[in-house]
Amino acid sequence: MTDVTTELRTADGKSLKAALAASQVRAKRRAFFLVAPLLLFILVTFVVPIGQMLKQSVYNDAFSSTAPALDKWFQANPLGTPLDEGAYAALASDLKLMKENRTQGQAGTRINYDVAGTRSLFTSTARKINRLEPPWKEAILGVNEGWSDPNLWRAMRSASSPYTIDFYLAAMDHTRDKDNNIVPVNPNRAIYGKLFGRTAMLSIIITVLCMILAFPIAHLLATLPLAKSNLLMIFVLLPFWTSLLVRTTSWMVLLQQQGVLNDLLVWIGIINNGQRLEMMYNKTGTIIAMTHILLPFMVLPLYSVMRTIPPSYVRAARSLGATSWTAFRKIYLPQTLPGIGAGSLLVFILSVGYYITPALVGGADGQLISNMIAFHMQNSLNWSLAAALASLLLGGVVVLYWLYDRLVGIDNMKLG
Amino acid sequence: MALPAYASPLERIWHYTYLVLCGLIFFFLIAPILVIIPLSFNAQPYFTFTKEMLNFNPAGYSMRWYDLLLTFGMQEPQAERGWSWWMDVWQHATWIGVAKNSLIIGFFATIVATSLGTLAALGLSRPEMPYRRAIMAVLISPMIVPIIITATGLFFFYSKVGLAHTYPGIIMAHATLGIPFVIITVTATLVGFDNSLSRAAANMGADPRTTFFKIIMPLILPGVVSGALFAFVSSFDEVVVVLFVGGYEQQTIPRQMWNGIREQISPAILAVATILVFFSIALLTTVELLRRRSERLRGMSPG
After folding, report:
1. Is there a contact between B141 and A46 (Cβ–Cβ < 8 Å)?
2. Is A163 within 8 Å of A64 (Cβ atoms)?
3. Neighbours of A282 (CB within 10 A)
4. Which fold has domain A192-412?
5. ipTM over 0.85 threshold
6. B292: nearest CA partner in chain A
7. pTM of the predicted protein model
8. A283-319 tens-digit pLDDT
9. Which of B145, B156, B240 is opposite residue A52, by nearest beta carbon?
10. Which single residue of A79, A120, B96, B127 has CA 20 to 30 Å from A97?
């Protein structure tokens, strides 16, 4: 043992350890540089837009940007201050500004999200504001008594700051009372909780149906000789490759009251012509069509797990005296669990965010949360509420995605 | 799965029931897709088989809905069908116009997704890649995040930066949606890649670029092409993003189908659907052939 202290060196005299570390850093950097362009691209086209959406869910300046005087008054006077002449003077000054910039509709709409039926207050009072004289309190209340509502002032106070969690409250069926306490909304207006519940319920039903339907065929495909199973695989892959709209259209054709399925049932004689089944524009339509569309996503992971299960295990169980049912339950089924888990999670994740199929075949009670987001984006134009609903959905999906990564691993995702 | 000779009668019955069940499930998978093909030749504007169709009476069938695909939106559909009529179709027919848009958007989105995705997949399959798991999770997420959320975010973002109602906007969005497919297929191909081949090339004096184009690329090409096809299909089939950030100029086939289904569904939609089914059969065949080729190249048995 001589000279333990002498370091190993490379040919050009550097320490071997340092040279190795340097080359590893270089290799790391090279690998990262290959990924960097895509990462940057995804950052711009995906991560930033999602960030924008999250911001929109807590940021809305539709009112705050149009009402500077009220904001000043709210800052000087805490909640509970009686509405004096100063408050109404600030309101009058802001209404004048709104009339000048034609923003009374925008501001009114923002307050209307919080306290229903208040948009017309803004538009009608702004129309007359230039004809009014101080004292402002009497003048404005003379135009419309509605301005004395303390809840309206509470709403204006919370909207005078662009940052708010009120849209999340609304998305979870809650609101604030006039003292700024968080309270649940009137039960007959509480629609979002029900909708989230229905989305989860329908997704579970669809996942279970997919599981029941996928198991036998995945098993058949995994146990048949390859030449035959590759042929049968077409039945799974063709729907997978066919346009979503095509598949939805064909279900519309099949399920209509005057459609193929009803005609067939009438022809066989199961139902009369007068009692054709309503299978579309309701939950049934959504469930049937989505089960069909998502079935390949269950079959493929199940199949790839079942392929790896050696058939000799079940045979061994049988030869040790197990009945075929016991052998299936105790030997085969436990080994397919990773596939069942992967497929179910994938199908569930995909179905909670489904939009197109429920929109086309779902009717009124087959709609999912995505359809409500689209409604607020395109029809009611309450973008912040849409963003809040979308963020809640996103939160749920991210948790499931994380679970999927932990249990299955994203690397193991297979496409055909 | 063969039935063993010692199977009891009960097992026999169960075995055949099971086969019938499987048959029914396969039928459930494929029948909805096939049923629209004959219906698209319906002579009547109905969505069900008429008596004439069931009797195979030629009068029950017609090409009128395919014809409508050409004439819809034309300036002079009644004119004589000569050179100028076809020019009119090419320039003004609505469905031809949206098909052109779909192809243009799909083509460029595929190019972007495939080039960036392949490069990234090469990096991701190197053992030295730092934060591999986290980066992979981010790159796959466009496939997992509900499309309505992506579309909502893009709507806010694009209206701010002025990309709304533009081709580049739609192409970038579609490329993003196609990237997970490219990553998944290309990394799957690279799993079986023998790294000593590229080392051998370097040993013989090839620079990294030559190694990539002469050694790596030919071997992973089948995976890259099927990833590209996946990316193309995901763009070709996408409607929600186009709905949210596309303008009148960027109407695509699925967008036009969506309009057609929502407003008044006519068998013309079934004619489009039939064409798309044949399109997907062609794509599926290509991908399947590529997969076999890739397995041969990598010396794996098919399976």
Report:
1. yes
2. no
3. 16
4. MetI-like fold (1.10.3720)
5. yes
6. A230
7. 0.89
8. 889 999 999 999 999 999 999 899 999 989 988 998 8
9. B156
10. A79
